[in-house]
Write a structure and sequence with these properties.
homodimer; about 170 residues; alpha+beta; Arc Repressor Mutant, subunit A; Dna Ligase, domain 1; 2 domains; 3-stranded mixed beta sheet; two-stranded antiparallel ribbon; 6 helices; about 15% strand; disordered N terminus; disordered C terminus; DNA-binding
Chain lengths: ~170, ~170
Amino acid sequence: MTTGQGSAAEMPEELARALAGAEARCLRAGAQLTELRRQVLALVLEAEQPLGAYALLDRLKAQRPGAAPPTVYRALDFLLEQGLIHKVERLNAFVGCVEAGYDHGGGHDHHHPHQFLICRDCGVTVEISDPAVAHALADAAARVGFRVGNATVEVEGFCAACATRPPEAAGA
Amino acid sequence: MTTGQGSAAEMPEELARALAGAEARCLRAGAQLTELRRQVLALVLEAEQPLGAYALLDRLKAQRPGAAPPTVYRALDFLLEQGLIHKVERLNAFVGCVEAGYDHGGGHDHHHPHQFLICRDCGVTVEISDPAVAHALADAAARVGFRVGNATVEVEGFCAACATRPPEAAGA
DNA sequence: GGGGTTCAGTTACTATATAACACGCGGCGG
DNA sequence: CCGCCGCGTGTTATATAGTAACTGAACCCC
């Protein structure tokens, strides 16, 4: 609510740090975080909620009038590959990866297991990264001889705030 | 591979049984498994793989020339509500629920937790229903005060067959 | 028989995503 | 120097997925 997207002048430190981290990460991966890609990443990160490709496109057009669907989708593909953003399949929308900011050079480089909690009521989407879930999943998969690659885990339900405030009196 | 979809004449016992089970289930739920819905359900069940709404529409047109997108989507919505089919979000496609066939009158009525394993190589999609995964997920959610409703869990990776037969020699 | 509900037909449209081709730029070998 | 190639992007067109809104038929209930 507090962000005036009209002019892309403002640049909170947090965003700047995230972009710098992304840059470093791409460097390590031998990938180019070009101007376009940085712009799209910034748009995703600025938003507090998952944004659809076309919503991003609209915002992007402010800075890049000629932008078309492929413009956005190609950037998104890149960012997904680099693990800088995730796609929320249930929403056909994209969010910044909560872990992307940490520039911990070692261990895994990207594509950490993650899960989304999506509030049915207020729409808030939260990313968590629970090892137990990943483990249970890998376990279950292994039981049928399946080798886990990338997992999409998205839970719809009620966030803490909306769960306590019971919505609008059940009608049925 | 063995099903000739050209004419909808054939009706394996398995399919017939599944449809009968679905009928019984709807009866119990006070829902009507109409002709259209049965047709769409049959199409989903016949396919060995997830089918997109428009693929279903094409097939449906053989039996119902006037069919349009809403025709299929309304039937799919119904079947989803009844728990007779699931949607695979990553594929925008629909599959029959493996548990729908069991006409166990008691306990849960539908919407059991389930997970999909999708082979990156051959595309085979398998549904499993692992309580440990569901539990781990509910647990992780509870830890942040989130009440779990419906979970989408879809794992991409390699099925047993494709995992043993290493694909086409890794390049990188 | 009026009035509700449910289901399906129909038209039109919105939203999401990709194909295919063209161009500019930088590197590299002839 | 030139042609070629890989890459990122621009551009146009199109494919795929999903809904809105209105219509009418069938059924049930009173």
